[in-house]
């Protein structure tokens, strides 16, 4: 039989315990302490008599979580055991972390009191806080390293038109409440999304400092960071108004709504310089989370991570800008070397050049169409070995030499002899191949005289039969040891001659002979009846993934009484490569009008104006060569203009300066339009819905 303890025996055992114990009765919903042990008095400093005199709340204070205490008490009154860990107060005012457990005391089914046991867990809580702090530091470090790495990856995405916006969005999601990149333009804050520099931005910053009173007269952290020779980060207080129409006031106006939207956001903005190798490119402004600003150590950690990101972004921006400068230099050189396609009376001529993008838009392929005399037209196509500035320079020299001798001498073999002699004396460092052909009218036919210097033979297409003009072959330019020969061929109405460089047919996975055979097979199966249509079919079939520069010249002899455009061409799309020069606007307009004539599109006024505006925008605001594509679709005439500026087109209403953007407004009234990013730039498209001719009772959309 088990002996039950009496109340006195139970209290004697509790008295011997080394933990603080109290016993209380529940009377009228309140608790009254009826007993405490010696350990309780030692820990809290209160005797049993004092506990009778003072309420239980003397063990609690401002730092005690009273909601937790009330939750525990209500749980005990329902007859359940409950525990809390809260801050407890001693008689001398000191505090400690207490783990307090209350167990109900029953009389029958009624809770009449409780027994409370308290443990000092301050050391455990302190260690837990240190562990949490260590974990938070480690987590921050991991986030920081990951953030810097992701920022580097985003800046390395060459096809991303807005890498700075992508980095800012990544920071806003992972590290801070909000982030953005800015520059100062004329004393006002200007958001940045891409890496292209504004023109003379450094000069505008200095002018703003002199004329607008910043930073000399007004303490503007943003301008100070941008203008400093050794820039350091700064802070902008959102609660303090700044002088109006200054960069810092612009930033405050932009970020105060964000601060109101994010309850966790801090009241200060961190402004960090984005520095290149020699100067400050822009600033990165971030709105940290308030929890990261509670102490100096946390704020310094966030600032360090942001500075690392800004440093990576600065180096990537400068590299991208250097590349863009080299790209524009190479493009300018290439554009200077390639001629504009001149109009040739009584002949339908189409030209095309596309550099290999892997070689910085510089190559040695070239073409030329020359008015040798009133009765003769010269066609040149050539290829200089290499894909660098030296190859382009050599190409430019050869083009000038050939053009000069062609205008003086008609016989192609003699022209190449003279070129050989001059090139040998100049010691041109690169080998080169070319074909020079002179076309002269002979009644309704044309005579083509040609000579080849190590180049692939042109192809003559007549009624589906393909003949290689392989006569008058010889060694590469500058290596001729005997007089060059001249071969002749007759061109009949409807005949087509294709001049091309090896980039059209050469691939790593097949022999050159196989590529030429594929070109001949394509030429034999052509359905287009104009030079541009022939070129489009060749490019569509053979040049979808070129591994080298591609230059093509297509010459067609029209049938008597026609322009060579009979409306039966298929596919009903055309493409051209144009230099970024104002004359390209007129050439694009004529190209579209010619295509419309080929497809029987009568109402061309809207298309003419739309293509003019699209190409004009590309010339004014883009860079690199301009790609023009036209397609007759069931929905209407689709015109696409591609350039290498990834920035989206801007309409007048959204333009920052209010200058420009009228062209898009005009286009919007004449057609549906849009834009999309592509590798290395963007495409702006417009869909025009013209009336169509129904000549011959045929549906022009067929084919």
Structure description:
The protein is an alpha+beta fold and 703 residues long. It folds into four domains: 7-120, Beta-Lactamase (2-Layer Sandwich), CATH 3.30.450.20; 126-327, Beta-Lactamase; 340-531 and 545-553, 4-Layer Sandwich (Phosphatase 2c, domain 1); 572-703, 2-Layer Sandwich (Heat Shock Protein 90), CATH 3.30.565. The protein has 17 helices and 25 strands. It has a five-stranded antiparallel β-sheet, sandwiched between helices. A five-stranded antiparallel β-sheet has the order 7-6-10-9-8, sandwiched between helices. Strands 11-20-19-16-17 form a five-stranded antiparallel β-sheet, with helices on one face. A hairpin with a 2-residue loop joins strand 4 and strand 5. Helix 5 packs parallel to helix 10 and helix 15 runs antiparallel to helix 16 (605-621). The protein is elongated and about 135 Å long.
In CATH, what is the class of the largest domain?
Alpha Beta
Compute the number of helices: 17
| Alpha-beta content class | alpha+beta
Question: What's the number of extended β-strand segments?
Answer: 25
Q: What portion of residues belong to β-strands?
A: 25-35%
CATH architecture of the largest domain: 2-Layer Sandwich
Helix content: 25-40%
Question: What's the CATH topology name of the largest domain?
Answer: Beta-Lactamase
Largest sheet, strands/sense/barrel: 5 strands, antiparallel
Average pLDDT: 79
**Oligomeric assembly:** single chain
Radius of gyration: 41 Å
Number of domains: 4
**CATH superfamily label of the largest domain:** GAF domain
Q: What is the CA–CA distance across the termini?
A: 108 Å
User: What general outline do the C-alpha atoms trace?
Assistant: elongated
- Low-confidence region ranges: 198-204, 206-218, 563-570, 653-660, 692-703
Spatial order of strands in the largest sheet: 2-1-5-4-3
């Amino acid at each position: 039989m088990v002996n039950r303890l009496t109340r006195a025996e139970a209290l004697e055992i509790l008295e011997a315990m080394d933990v603080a114990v109290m016993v209380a009765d529940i009377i009228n919903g309140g608790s009254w302490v009826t007993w405490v042990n010696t350990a309780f008095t030692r820990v809290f400093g209160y005797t049993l008599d004092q506990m009778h005199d003072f309420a239980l709340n003397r063990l609690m204070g401002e730092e005690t979580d009273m909601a937790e205490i009330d939750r525990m008490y209500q749980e005990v009154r329902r007859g359940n055991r409950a525990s809390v860990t809260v801050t407890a107060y001693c008689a001398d005012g000191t505090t400690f972390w207490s783990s307090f457990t209350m167990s109900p005391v029953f009389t029958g089914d009624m809770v009449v009191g409780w027994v409370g046991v308290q443990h000092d867990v301050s050391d455990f809580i302190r260690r837990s806080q240190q562990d949490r702090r260590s974990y938070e530091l480690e987590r921050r470090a991991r986030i920081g390293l990951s953030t810097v790495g992701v920022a580097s990856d985003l800046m390395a995405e060459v096809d991303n038109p807005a890498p700075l916006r992508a980095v800012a969005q990544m920071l806003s999601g992972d590290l801070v409440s909000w982030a953005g990149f800015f520059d100062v333009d004329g004393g006002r804050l200007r958001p940045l999304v891409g890496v292209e520099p504004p023109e003379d931005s450094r000069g505008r910053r200095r002018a703003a400092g002199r004329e607008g009173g910043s930073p000399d007269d007004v303490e503007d952290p943003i301008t100070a960071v941008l203008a400093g020779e050794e820039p350091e980060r700064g802070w902008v207080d959102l609660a303090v108004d700044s002088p109006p129409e200054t960069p810092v006031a612009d930033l405050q106006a932009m970020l105060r709504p964000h601060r109101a939207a994010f309850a966790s956001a801090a009241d200060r903005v961190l402004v960090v310089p984005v520095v290149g190798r020699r100067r400050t490119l822009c600033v990165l402004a971030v709105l940290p989370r308030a929890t990261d600003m509670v102490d100096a150590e946390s704020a310094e950690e966030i600032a360090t991570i942001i500075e690392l990101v800004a440093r990576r972004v600065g180096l990537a921006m400068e590299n991208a800008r250097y590349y863009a400068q080299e790209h524009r230099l190479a493009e300018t050189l290439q554009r200077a070397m390639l001629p504009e396609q001149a109009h040739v009376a009584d002949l339908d001529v189409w030209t095309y050049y596309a550099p290999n993008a892997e070689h910085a838009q510089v190559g040695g392929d070239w073409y030329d169409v020359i008015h040798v005399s009133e009765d003769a037209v010269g066609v040149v196509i050539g290829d200089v070995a290499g894909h660098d500035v030296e190859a382009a320079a050599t190409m430019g020299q050869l083009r000038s030499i050939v053009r000069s001798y062609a205008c003086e001498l008609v016989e192609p073999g003699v022209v190449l002899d003279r070129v050989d002699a001059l090139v040998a004396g100049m010691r041109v460092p690169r080998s080169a191949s070319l074909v020079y052909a002179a076309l002269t009218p002979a009644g309704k036919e044309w005579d083509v005289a040609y000579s080849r210097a190590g180049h692939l033979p042109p192809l003559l297409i007549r009624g589906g039969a393909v003949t290689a003009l392989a006569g008058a072959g010889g060694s590469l330019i500058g290596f001729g040891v005997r007089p060059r020969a001249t071969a002749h061929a007759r061109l009949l109405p409807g005949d087509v001659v294709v001049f091309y460089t090896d980039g059209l047919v050469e691939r790593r996975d097949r022999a050159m002979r196989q590529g030429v055979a594929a070109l001949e097979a394509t030429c034999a199966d052509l359905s287009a009846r104009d030079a541009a249509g022939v070129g489009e079919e060749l490019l569509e079939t053979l040049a979808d993934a070129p591994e080298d520069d591609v230059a093509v010249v297509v010459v067609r002899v029209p049938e008597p009484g026609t322009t060579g455009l009979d409306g039966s061409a298929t596919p009903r799309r055309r493409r051209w490569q144009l230099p970024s020069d104002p004359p390209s606007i007129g050439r694009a307009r004529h190209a579209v009008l010619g295509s419309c004539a080929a497809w029987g599109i009568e109402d061309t006024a809207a298309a003419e104006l739309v293509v003019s505006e699209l190409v004009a925008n590309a010339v004014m605001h883009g860079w690199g060569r301009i790609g023009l594509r036209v397609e007759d679709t069931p929905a209407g005439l689709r015109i696409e203009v591609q350039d290498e500026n990834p920035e989206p087109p801007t309409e007048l209403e959204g333009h920052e300066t209010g200058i420009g953007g009228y062209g898009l407004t005009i286009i919007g009234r004449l057609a549906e339009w849009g834009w999309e990013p592509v590798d290395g730039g963007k495409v702006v498209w417009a869909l025009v819905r013209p009336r169509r001719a129904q000549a011959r009772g045929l549906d022009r959309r067929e084919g």
